[in-house]
Amino acid sequence: MNPVIETIMSHRSIRQFKDERISNEQISSIIKAAQMAPSSRFMQTYSIIGITNPLIKKELGKITGLTYVENNGHFLLFCADLHRLTIKASDKEKQNMQDMLESTQFYQIATIDASLAAQNAALAAESMGLGVVYIGAIAKGLPEIDKLLNIPSHVIPLFGMAIGFPDQQPEIKPRLPLEAVYFENQYNTNMDEQQELIEGYDQKMKAYYETRSENQRADTWSCKNIALFQKKADAHFSQYVKEKRMNLL
Amino acid sequence: MNPVIETIMSHRSIRQFKDERISNEQISSIIKAAQMAPSSRFMQTYSIIGITNPLIKKELGKITGLTYVENNGHFLLFCADLHRLTIKASDKEKQNMQDMLESTQFYQIATIDASLAAQNAALAAESMGLGVVYIGAIAKGLPEIDKLLNIPSHVIPLFGMAIGFPDQQPEIKPRLPLEAVYFENQYNTNMDEQQELIEGYDQKMKAYYETRSENQRADTWSCKNIALFQKKADAHFSQYVKEKRMNLL
């Protein structure tokens, strides 16, 4: 196993950090690593906002309800960003750009660009012995975050990333069996096979949830997902995206 | 620079591969690396389809118009996949899940999950001396690909990835200045500053496009992007996503 694959295979999310900021040199390496990710048509349609102001971190901690959003070595917010593409356009060109800026296709493209950059950032941080955790819970207060960070149209925050010196060493979570996520030549729609694979994985995760060092509970992977999806969709979410003039067409 | 950051910083897309398949062992390492990516609420909402059938590869080459989609060491298709979450649900539970399955929020989440997995796969491949290129051009024929690969509802192909033994060594493309993508505490809406940064980058990219070893042209980064966005949005794209029962709410 080479050092890259070793770093990848050692990933666990870290949610408890030492009270120590990461250095500006580390931040710079992490951002430069993010920038080296591939991007669709080389458009680089993402932005990253680093939060150093303790008041803003406190506010983000409140919005997400997560202590480690406030208490970490650094906090990054990853945004899908189509706005930058318009900066050098004339008024007339800008006008003509609206249709594609507002399309689902470019909302998806910018989301992918930002995600590829983020995973480079995460691995760069982990390769330096830092821990990271992605923060999807920013979705709980997108309009507030938007205002707080002065985010323009055609830009939306996708997720945060807390980074820092790990103050815990959780177990690595077992993943789905390879055959459940990887198919050859066509999607596997043999439901008996798929059910059997998921059933086996549910038993494995049940044992994991029951015996892990923290946050033990009685649950399976399927049960927790199915329970989560019994709720109604959050209409505010798609409304927010549309108000930012993305995903309209 | 540690070996992980070195691999990240050496990325260039490879579009010409030697006529040699990568080994099953390499494929397995790449997929396992993909699986170790973080995923939202540990839902692992992605699937990967590896294409080994030469007829299907030929077809995908035709759809995308790209020779390297057919000619490579292996081809992966990354999909956002919410379908798997329903496999163990009862009919009644499945019914209740539809709302969230059809939401923009979970379309975005699955897109991010698949992208994080893909970037792990890309770096794992590159760490073994292989080259990769992401293929966004599958968007040219989503309904055909859907049929060809038997893809169920709540699953959509996002992009392909051609992998193989590199038969070219292109230059590394200069990225945007760090200050153009990374902001502190709030989004930089100082347009004069941003315009100056992009102007400087346009000049840098102009020199790059004029002097690189292949595919030379007279262009700037901004001009090529603005030109691309003068077209109308592809309505078939968002229609396809909606037909797959995603991004509806």
From TrEMBL, chains A, B:
Gene3D superfamilies: NADH Oxidase. It comes from the Bacteria. Residues 8-164 form the Nitroreductase domain. The keyword Oxidoreductase applies. InterPro entries: Flavin_OxRdtase_Frp (IPR016446), Nitroreductase (IPR029479), Nitroreductase-like (IPR000415). GO terms for molecular function: oxidoreductase activity. Pfam families: Nitroreductase. Keywords: Flavoprotein, FMN, NADP, Oxidoreductase. Belongs to the flavin oxidoreductase frp family. NCBIfam families: PRK10765.1. This is NADPH-dependent oxidoreductase.
